[in-house]
Amino acid sequence: MGTKPVAEAAGHAAADQPGGTIPRPLAERGVSMKMLQDFVRVHPEAVNASTVAVVELVVLLTREHKCSYTELPPSPLDDGTFYGPATHFVSHARACMFSDLIDVISREEEEEEDEVAKAHVDPAAPRTANYFWIDVFAINHHPCTTKCQPPPRPGAIQQHHQQQHQQQQQQQQSTADAETEVKKEAAGALGPAEANALQAVAEARAEAEAAEAEELVEQLQGVVRRCSTTLALLSPWQSPTALGQAWCLFEHMTGPGGLRYVTSRSQERDLLAHVGERHEQFMQLVSGVDIRTCRASREAEKAAMVARLQLVSAAAPPQQGESGNSGNSGGGSGTCGIEALNAGVRAALRQWLRGGVAKAVAALSQEHGPDDSRVARLRALLTAHAQ
Questions:
Q1: What SS3 state is found at 132?
Q2: Which end of the chain is less congested by CB atoms within 10 angstroms, N or C?
Q3: 161, pLDDT greater than 90
Q4: How many CB atoms lie within 10 A of CB 297?
Q5: CA gap 233, 91 in Å, rounded
């Protein structure tokens, strides 16, 4: 996740809603691969867009109903399989390409099909369908309900940019006005009553932001926990944007049991070709992973995330520290709290990279023979990982 969603409430009866929308509880806003294929068919320009741009498109498409995309009146092609209770949580940075999200979900479906085939399971036997929770579609990106505007034409990703720019200018002006008031107060231009009123407004705003952040974090944590798997997208693989974003790390830490780091096929090809030369870059980035120093859209949100993670980890048994890390490390010492969660993410990332190195060794050995010098260098990296 990148930008903050509005707080979500459990759905009510669809019959009570205007325009045929279908309210769904937050955890039941998973989308199927079939739904994603339909979305790309109708909006082909989304394939080569960032998820930020696709969110802007979704804002346009849902502007009339002021709901999440999953709650829109159903598509004529929806046979009842487009949406369902989420089984997979897809964690990603908003800077990633939408095509990467589609690719990792497609791979997940293909790998499951392969496993079923290898297990000689009857293809006609009932199976639990996969539904993927993607913030692009699951979140209501509209703050408060206002007067509805006419729905936009499909395929208009860039139409929203000008409106966004105007809104940003208005927000900047509002911020500048507030700063002017603060400067007046500092210069003694405000009387005692005005200064007290300004202080009260600032405190009330901070309290409201903290309460909203706590509610948001609690809701997202609930969704992740209800999913059996968290697919955490790494893009670009050697310096993933997600590892510097507090929301992404919070998602990784909330569902560690089902956490799986993934990357797109194009990124995996790059990894196999260049892991030897970019290995150290990735390892240095991983060593500094810490949710407390990550970026967040609002400090109140990061504070709420850290506080909730501390509550969850307080009851957990201490974990073995990572050698080579500062703080609780080595010598049999244990880690606890936030540092334990940071350590768990670092360990999972190193394990993921080790798997990538092993794949590169196998590919190079098959192509150039096991005695190739590049194979030897990669084997040395595998040995270093094992120590």
A1: strand
A2: C
A3: no
A4: 16
A5: 6
